């Protein structure tokens, strides 16, 4: 058989999780930027930039989970039970963040601050624990046979906490650059102001993780610093520096889309770097994608649907973004 | 925590998060279709009353949908976090079904929801109606896939057990398993019925509080036609579903009926009340109608179905819970049929909108559909025990290897968060219901085509407090 269906599934899940990180990333970033924008009108505008699309953005997370269960049931059961507490905290964060979209506008004036806090707190908790889960996942999940064999606190490590902070920085950068694209006036100026330090923080986080991982995990160092890999992989750090340079330069020249596109590029590069580090494991460092693969009859059935339907999803999602294109202004429309 | 085992805590957590979740999709399935009907009626007739009602229920739908989304994500991950051994065993079957649900339903709902809620001024009326229909279709597709998955767990077929895991052999057989058509019809109907009762209760509340206008009357009338037609239909579907359960899950049925043993040649009674006693292996205080059980279940005077004693004690579901949850569901169903018949009677001579006793009954029946859904799910899920996949995997073998302490912590977090978030959410829903349809909504009639560069602030969230309560509706006029 020429095409390895298991590799295709790994690519689909890689793509699905990336879509989630990018799209819900800027939603969560907006929540984390709320503390820096006290004015209610500005907060309304910020929320309205994502109100029509946040639900679709979050659906990629469900697709990632469902795809993992469909194609790699062993990995799904080990990873989800191994990262039990961080994932539950993440879900609770998403709960508070998600209802805030509706409740904030339904609340009476004196209640609104509750949902502002729920939006901020939910976004912070969800982003932080997504990063913690990612860090713990990269650090390795204790496995015996086909089951998780650690404890409720196995995920807890300095590396995981650092990954949590790194994810918060990345999402906040995505949120700020998204708002540069979608707003104007003083709110946009404020976002341009916070994007510069955020870009440096993002660069620092990428450098820190890039240095930490190979030092801790010899197999990762092996992957990156051996020939001929080094030659193939050298563009990754070079592109990171290029993206940072372009982002910072664009901030000085009445920016519109470019900062967001460069922030996307940074996230994509960091994310691809992680995938390169763990390939071909799906539960690093023990279980490869082929060892975790579900039955071919499951992978095949789900793949047919995915390949047929995913283009349509991308099409109408694109249409939805197109319908809600352009700058969002406050106080326009309905009362 | 209070001496509960990890397994018990995991089951409590699942029951708790599931019970909260199911209420929201049940309402959004019904409301999305109702909204599609309202918008369709408006497009055809251009009568303002339909647009008024559309905007009224759209706001309530948006809040309910949001709560369904956030509680649903918890469900999608809970199979892995709390039931990893189940996912490992059955993921090859349930995984693709869940993946299809996400691909065909969740993205459809989410993709078109934004246009449905905020796109009134950005797309034409036809395209807006299309978006509403896509959201409604998404809710129905979602129910189809998730019920296929649950039905397979109840009546598994089309698989082989390879290397200790369920492997799909024939997907058509997996999806079209014996209980699937009945469960799908029963749950879909339940969602429509629950929504009709909810809409009817909202209208009844306004009529009782002195608001009697075209929009409120239209609401009550539509809801009561629905109840009248669908409640008896649901009883028939439920009966067929019960016969299917008798065939495929005899222990569940015996528990539902509080039926312990057969005596040769003697027909089964239909127990109305009783207290099944697991230890004494009998149903105490039983009050029943002789032979009716046989007639319903076997269509003969002395037909028999297996009693609980024919199953080993460790194979029996918890009879007291199943017996009573089933009776609550059936009792509520009978009350719904009665309400529908009363509404038909009162339509003669136009007393439907003024008969206060009836309106109070309609108001009281507002949550009845949702309660019946909860009771029904308790019946079918507790009745499946001790199995999580019937006859293949025991619930005790399905749970993740967590400590009771970790589970107690997460359960406490869920309980506190859910009561807070959904408690307030339900209060907001009721507040929106109380506000009533607003004639002001008519100012938001669509203007064709996307407004270049204009983004509406949230129309939904224009639900500001107070000032415009109970405005009289303007006379009927064309759309805009």
UniProtKB/TrEMBL annotation, chain A:
Record keywords:
Cell membrane, Membrane, Transmembrane, Transmembrane helix
Localization, per the record, is: Cell membrane
Give the transmembrane ranges.
6-37, 84-105, 117-139, 159-181, 193-215, 227-248, 260-282, 302-324
Keyword Membrane listed? The answer is yes
Which membrane topology term applies here? Multi-pass membrane protein
Domain of life from the UniProt record: Bacteria
Q: Which PANTHER family match?
A: CYTOCHROME BD2 SUBUNIT II
- Cross-referenced NCBIfam families: cydB
Q: Which family does it belong to?
A: Belongs to the cytochrome ubiquinol oxidase subunit 2 family.
**Name of the protein in question:** Cytochrome d ubiquinol oxidase subunit II
Upper taxonomic classification of the species?
Bacteria, Pseudomonadati, Pseudomonadota, Betaproteobacteria, Burkholderiales
TrEMBL record, chain B:
Give the matching Pfam families. Answer: Cyt_bd_oxida_I (PF01654)
User: Cross-referenced InterPro entries, in alphabetical order?
Assistant: Cyt-d_ubiquinol_oxidase_su_1
Membrane-spanning segments? 20-44, 56-77, 97-119, 126-148, 189-208, 220-237, 321-346, 358-378, 406-430
Annotated compartments? Cell inner membrane; Cell membrane
Q: Where is the segment annotated Disordered?
A: 441-480
What is the top-level taxon of the source organism?
Bacteria
Q: Which UniProt keywords apply?
A: Cell membrane, Electron transport, Heme, Iron, Membrane, Metal-binding, Transmembrane, Transmembrane helix, Transport
List the membrane topology term(s).
Multi-pass membrane protein
Matching entries from PANTHER family are given as:
CYTOCHROME BD MENAQUINOL OXIDASE SUBUNIT I-RELATED, CYTOCHROME D UBIQUINOL OXIDASE
Q: Which family does it belong to?
A: Belongs to the cytochrome ubiquinol oxidase subunit 1 family.
Q: What is this protein called?
A: Cytochrome ubiquinol oxidase subunit I
Organism, by scientific name, is Pseudoduganella chitinolytica
């Amino acid at each position: 058989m020429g095409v390895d269906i298991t590799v295709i599934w790994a690519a689909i899940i890689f793509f699905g999780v990336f879509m989630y990180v990018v799209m819900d990333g800027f939603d969560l970033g907006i929540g984390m930027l709320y503390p820096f924008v006290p004015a209610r009108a500005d907060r309304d505008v910020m929320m309205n930039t994502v109100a029509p699309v946040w639900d679709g953005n979050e659906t990629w997370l469900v697709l990632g989970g469902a795809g993992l269960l469909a194609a790699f049931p062993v990995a799904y059961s080990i990873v989800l039970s191994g990262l039990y507490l961080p994932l539950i905290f993440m879900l609770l964060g998403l709960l508070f963040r998600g209802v805030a979209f509706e409740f904030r506008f339904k609340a009476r004036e004196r209640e609104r601050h509750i949902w502002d806090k729920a939006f901020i707190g939910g976004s912070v908790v969800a982003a932080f624990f997504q990063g913690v889960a990612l860090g713990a996942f990269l650090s390795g999940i204790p496995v015996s046979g086909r089951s998780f064999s650690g404890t409720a606190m196995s995920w807890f490590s300095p590396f995981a906490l650092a990954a949590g902070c790194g994810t918060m920085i990345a999402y906040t950068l995505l949120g700020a650059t998204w708002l540069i694209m979608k707003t104007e006036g003083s709110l946009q100026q404020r976002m341009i102001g916070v994007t510069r330090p955020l870009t440096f923080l993002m660069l620092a986080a990428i450098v820190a993780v890039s240095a930490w991982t190979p030092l801790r995990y010899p197999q990762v160092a092996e992957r990156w610093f051996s020939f001929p890999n080094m030659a193939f992989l050298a563009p990754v750090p070079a592109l990171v520096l290029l993206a940072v340079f372009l982002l910072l330069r664009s901030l000085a020249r009445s920016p519109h889309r470019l900062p967001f596109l460069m922030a996307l590029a940074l996230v994509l590069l960091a994310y691809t770097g992680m995938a390169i580090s763990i390939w071909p494991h799906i539960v690093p460092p023990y279980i490869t994608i082929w060892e975790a693969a579900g039955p071919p009859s499951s992978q095949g059935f789900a793949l047919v649907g995915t390949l047929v339907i995913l283009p349509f999803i991308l099409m109408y999602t694109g249409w939805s973004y197109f319908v809600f294109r352009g700058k969002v202004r406050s106080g326009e429309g309905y009362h | 925590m209070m001496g509960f085992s990890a397994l018990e805590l995991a089951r409590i957590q699942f029951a708790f998060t599931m019970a909260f979740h199911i209420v929201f999709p049940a309402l959004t399935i019904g409301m999305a279709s109702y909204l599609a009907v309202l918008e369709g009626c408006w497009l055809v007739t251009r009568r303002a009353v339909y647009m008024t009602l559309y905007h009224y229920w759209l706001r309530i739908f948006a809040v309910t949908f949001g709560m369904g989304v956030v509680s649903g994500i918890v469900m999608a991950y809970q199979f892995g976090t709390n039931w990893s051994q189940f996912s490992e065993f059955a993921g090859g079957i349930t995984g693709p079904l869940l993946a299809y649900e996400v691909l065909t339903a969740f993205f459809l709902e989410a993709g078109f929801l934004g246009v449905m809620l905020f796109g009134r001024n950005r797309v034409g009326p036809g395209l807006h109606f299309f978006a509403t229909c896509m959201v409604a279709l998404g809710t129905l597709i979602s129910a189809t896939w998730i019920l296929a998955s649950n039905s397979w767990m109840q009546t598994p077929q089309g698989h082989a057990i390879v290397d200790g895991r369920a492997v799909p052999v024939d997907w058509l057989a997996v999806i079209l398993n014996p209980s699937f058509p009945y469960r799908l019809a029963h749950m879909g109907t339940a969602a429509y019925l629950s929504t009709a009762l909810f809409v009817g209760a909202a209208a009844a509340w306004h009529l009782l509080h002195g608001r009697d206008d075209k929009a409120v009357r239209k609401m009550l009338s539509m809801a009561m036609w629905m109840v009248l037609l669908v409640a008896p239909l649901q009883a028939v579907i439920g009966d067929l579903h019960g016969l299917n359960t008798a065939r495929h899950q005899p222990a569940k049925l015996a528990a539902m009926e509080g039926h312990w043993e057969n005596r040769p040649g003697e027909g089964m009674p239909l127990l109305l009340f009783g207290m099944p006693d697991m230890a004494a292996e009998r149903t105490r205080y039983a009050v029943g109608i002789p032979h009716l059980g046989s007639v319903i279940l076997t269509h003969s005077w002395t037909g028999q179905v297996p009693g609980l004693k024919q199953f080993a004690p460790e194979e029996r579901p918890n009879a007291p819970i199943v017996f009573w949850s089933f009776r609550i569901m059936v009792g509520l169903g009978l009350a719904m049929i009665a309400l529908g018949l009363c509404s038909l009677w009162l339509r003669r001579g136009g007393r439907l909108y003024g008969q206060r006793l009836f309106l109070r009954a309609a108001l009281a029946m507002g949550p009845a559909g949702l309660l019946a859904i909860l009771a029904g799910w308790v019946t079918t899920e507790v009745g499946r025990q001790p199995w999580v996949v019937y006859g293949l995997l025991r619930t005790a073998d399905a749970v993740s290897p967590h400590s009771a302490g970790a589970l107690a912590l997460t359960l406490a977090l869920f309980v506190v968060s859910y009561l807070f978030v959904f408690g307030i959410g339900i209060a907001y829903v009721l507040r929106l219901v109380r506000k009533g349809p607003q004639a002001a909504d008519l100012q938001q009639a669509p203007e064709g085509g996307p407004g270049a560069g204009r983004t509406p602030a949230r129309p939904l969230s224009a639900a500001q407090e107070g000032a415009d309560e109970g405005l009289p509706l303007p006379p009927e006029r064309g759309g805009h």
